[in-house]
Queue: 2 jobs
Job 1
Amino acid sequence: MTQDREDIAGRALDALDHEERRRFDEQADEATLAELADMQETAAALGAAVAVAPPAELRARIFEQVAATEQVRPEVAVVGGRDDEAAAQDATEREPAHVGAGASTAGPRELAAQRRWFQRPASVLAAAAAAVVLLVGGVGIGQAMRGPDEVSALVHASDVSTQTASLADGTRATLMWSHEQGDVALVFEGLSALDQEQVYEAWLMRDGEPIAAGVFEGGDGSVVHVLDGELQEGDGVAITIEPAGGSEQPTSQALLVMTT
Amino acid sequence: MRVAAGDREAFATVYDALSARVFGLVLRVLVDRSQAEEVTQEVFVDMWRKAPTYDSARGSAIGWALALAHSKAVDRVRSSQSQRDRDERIGIRDSVAPFDVVSEAADVRLEGKRVREALETLTEAHREAIVLAYYGGLTQTEIAERLQTPLGTVKTRLRDGMIRLRAAMGVS
């Protein structure tokens, strides 16, 4: 038996020390990981066997934290729609902006508002994702949730830039990108759901040519799509509606075109 | 990708479904209630953060949550207490009833009963190694020292014990 396989039980029971664990995680192959997952289920049964109801105050404390996080749901969506007075009032309530130089074409007030959201979007998005994943527990959602990590990386990139625009129906879209990370993400606040035969598809527009950058669905709340492919200088981003599964070339009029 | 709204309610459901199991496990490892509450809070906050890394192909959501809870509890115990403290603590804990399941949920109680019965089918050596590792938070090296048994033997006991436990519980 190889070193890592004889440590599977130890790994499942958290009985490896720091160094052993690091080595195990480095060396583990697919078969080992599959067996580990199996053993972790057994370990979880041991865990579930000693259930004790936590004090009610704990629930309250945890929910307080959750509530605080939810106050920073994406706000970019409404910034552009506000009149100056409201925006000014908001700006005074918020901390000054420190988004990187050249971050956006928006004015200081908008930047201030954007920063408020960008400070903690990952936690907001991941929070929602966690709930969905845990409740559904199904295939697909968990795997599809690679967004928040990349969004988080984007937010923390030193050269993060943002731009907002509206779809024809008034839906606000925020484009967020970093050349350093080579990543670009689209964030919508409440994107109309399409019928089952259709999906939204994102495109990187390079030298006037569209490059397919992944499909996504509409939905209530925040809809985030991290575009496939690596962002290059001068790329634009477009969104179209395509048949389910997506297309290699756009087959409909762009709903939105933005420049980075 | 889609991130649903109304997440506070969804989180409440998740919390209510898992909190007794998470808290019970953390408490079992840490013994100290106030530390167990702190770690439980960390676990649920972390579950938000780490949800993107949860892969349903690798196991159930409950398994994932309890693995996270256990690893945090063990981290806490290893960082905050010396070997001697921990031995003392385990000594105290072992003199108390080993399974004090206090939960209103019938399915949780049944689950506990099933696991206890499965544990009882193991040999003493297998059960001891698993209990020291999982509930005691000891490393396999520490178990070897404590039982004055070669490390390789401890590894084998953990592995065989877990395989038999799984068979006894009928975990597929």
Job 2
Amino acid sequence: MIVPQTASDTGQDQHVSVSGLVRTFDASQPWLVRVIGRQGRRIVRAVDDLSFSIARGKTLGLVGESGCGKSTVARCLAGLLSPNAGSIRIAGAAASGTPARGEIQMVFQDPYSSLNPRWRVREAVGDSLLAFGLASNRSQMGEQVAKLLIDVGLAPEDGARYPHEFSGGQRQRVAIARAIASKPSILIADEPTSALDVSVQAQILNLLRDLQAARGLTCLFISHDLGVVDHMADTVGVMYLGRLVELRGKEDLFERPLHPYTRMLIETAPRLRRSNQQRSAVRGEVPSPLAPPPGCAFHPRCPLANDRCRRERPEPIAMPDGGTVACHAVEEGRLD
Amino acid sequence: MNRPAAPLLDLRALTVRLGRSERSPSVLDQITLALQAGEIMGLVGESGAGKSMTGAAIIDLLEAPLTKTGGEIWLNGDRIDDLPESAKRKLRGAKIGMIFQDPATSLNPVLTIGHQLTETIRQHTDLDHRQAHDRAVDLLADVGIPSPAERLGSYPHEFSGGMRQRVVIALALAGNPDLIIADEPTTALDVSIQAQIITLLKDVAAERGAGVLLITHDLGVIAEIADRVAVMYAGRIVEIAPMADILDAPHHPYTKALMRSIPLVGDRRERLPQIQGAMPRVGARPPGCAFHPRCPSRLDRCDRDRPDLETKDGVRVACWAV
């Protein structure tokens, strides 16, 4: 297995190292249906042989279309899903790879469903303090919750309110306060602003960056919005059907994208500029992860595909700029 | 461009309240805009600004307690908001086509799309079954569905999200409408599919000369295809301007702040300028200009007097500071 060296790999303190991560899901029909229909089991490889690392205090952005496996990576890293193969190493953690409790926290997309509607904000945030033994009694908890609420731009009095009394942006602030309560060193944000309006999105993105700087957080930031990822990340990984097709420093990736899929994503992303040139027609859609095409999964949509792409699966190859790209056309110099 | 005498769609001081009484809180407050045939107008704003409500009010799909308490809606020079319900039902589909955000809920899951298309076509035209079938095939081909004749027998779940949205667009076109109201048509779709649907909408509008009212929160989508943009805030239109003006030189402080707060690929800003606070909810809107508590260029009178849309350099803006 090739472990790609990322741009930030050289000499820096790697906080998170993921190698050969595989996670499959069983999407089979019930056994009786399989027996009658003479079908086999159907296994989806949601994440297929993924390797990356994140330097301490840096942010890795993951982009890709729905179903590409971004969120599965996040859930494996957070320990919400166990990988089928591969290793996740957190610097300073035990050899078993299990980090200290509370070391990794996650912020989810929908602040409406990630908070218990029957809990006051004080309880939602304080619960995590009590669970990780960071507060031994109620009055300690109250003080710390008040500090956390101020840190995320809310008022200490907001602790007495219920989630429904807040707007979406404020609710996401509560979810962030809850996530940072256990003093994690790694924060995973899975589409944290996708459910929010643009003016509120800017508030939350600024808050996340402030907290990262103040607390030295290492972040995995997932979004389908390229502009948001460009704003937040240091290194960007592009996923397609469970595989990392390109992993490079963000300037390199956005200014000189190499993989044809990355190029297509950047080209088709809506931008706030009037372009008179005709959009290059995007071909086709993402194939079903149940039946990924052989060879390079992107070949049916790729303008540069040849016979080798249809047969042989490209592995990540190291680029001179420190990134990796999994593409035969790049390797053979067939890019324009 | 040769402009017809009456605009395709003309909203005059459309007001919708949460209840019948004049004292009920207003959801839409004096919405005035005109859309020409062949024009794509973007209606943007944050959630709760009243964008979708405007679309629903035009086709009179408001549910109680929402009530239209004032204003007029004109289509092709005819007033349509005071028509009886049976006449309104005829308008929907025949004169006004609708495309909603979630293609899964716009289609009946237990009927083939051929059934749904031919039924809709026959509802709005006097074609017989055979002709309606042929027209359904043409429509599917128009919206870019491969092997349309075979796909007529498929059920909605057999299509991918992008293809399903194409079917919904075909349905909206079935009655050959003059006006298409598209409410967040690409929000549920992936970016590469989004681009295909945007291009399709643009082509459809150009080929048929239909006017499109494109409701979305995504300014990127609007920038791609809209000719003009109306920006909504707290139930009012604060600015109507050609797309280029909104992109390069927005007038209203809200539009300005909104455009600046969007992170773009390649901009190297450390911090995003943010608008403090959030949009006030229905019933809790401040007096004067609803944006004044968040506005950086607020004047003394802004918390007392409500600004109306005024024309300035071909742009309509509701702001005292402008």
